[in-house]
Amino acid sequence: MSPPAFADIAKASNDLINRDFYHTAAGNLEVKSKAPNGINFNVKGKSSHEGSTSGSIEGKYVDAPNGFTLTQSWTTTNVLNTKVELDNQITNGLKAEFATDFVPSSKDFGAKLNLAFKQPYFHARAFFDLMKGPTANIDAVLGRDGFLVGAETSYDVQKASITRYAAAVGYTVPQYSAAITATNNFSIFSAAYYHKVNSEVEAGAKATWDSKGSSNVGLEVASKYRLDPTSFAKVRESDLVLIDDG
Question: Which of 37, 112, 142, 225 is most open to solvent, judged by the fewest CB atoms within 10 Å of its CB?
Fold first, then answer.
């Protein structure tokens, strides 16, 4: 099994702290269907607390035996998106995506190439924005026996300079995980912990320090209790004395 992507090294604690608090997050609606010819349709809607609403309609064709996927969508902001995916076709463990977006009203066009390569102890990704910069965002993670080491960097080809970098170390097993990350060019540091106490109770905490901002350390604590197989309760508290119930 390959290690997680760089962005997911602290996923367990981040999800526990940030997800499922519906009164602070935008409302989402998603309707899925499948046509007799095998094409999947997905209609999405999103409404924020400020009143703005957005949505999209998406069609997806999947040829699983040949590792080919074609996805096209049209959004309420009049953006046409197309994505072609090839999984394990170029070489074993490599997934390639080519995505475009087109705005008919302004004739703006964008193109991106995304690559993900997974091996038992290695997970690397590369995201290339071909029309802006162009720019490249690359991250990689090495993992063995639960220990994780990862790094991320962004490079602007036109400026010939590194624009962003980050690093992380972590340890994860099914019952608990811990991670330390240094992001935003090593200016924001965080330590996160997640513990699945039992099948009903989960707990987690995250401490963050911005070296360019306040000298104080921000602390967030969250817990989840499963009431039954279909429902649960969550509580989150931060050092700002903000308590959320979900």
Answer: 37
**Category of 51 on φ-ψ map: left (φ > 0), alpha (ψ -120 to 50) or beta:** left
- List pLDDT tens digits, range 77-111: 999 999 999 999 999 999 999 999 999 999 999 99
Dihedral sign computed on CA atoms, order 23, 209, 123, 165: positive
Q: Retrieve residue 127's tokens.
A: 């995201």
Cβ proximity of 60 and 42 under 8 Å: yes
Question: Long-range contacts for 176-185 (Cβ within 8 Å, ≥24 apart)?
Answer: 177/10, 177/12, 177/13, 179/9, 179/10, 179/13, 179/148, 181/9, 181/10
Please say whether the beta carbons of 40 and 62 come within 8 A. yes
Give CA–CA dist 154/21, Å, rounded. Answer: 32
Q: Secondary structure of 191-241 in the HEC alphabet?
A: EEEEEECCCCEEEEEEEEEECCCCCCCEEEEEEEEEEECCEEEEEEEECCC
Other beta carbons within 10 angstroms of residue 150's beta carbon come to 25
pLDDT one-digit tens code per residue, 118-143: 999 999 999 999 998 789 999 999 99
Print the SS3 string covering 59-83: EEEEEHHHCEEEEEEEECCCCEEEE
Distance CA 128, CA 115 (A): 9
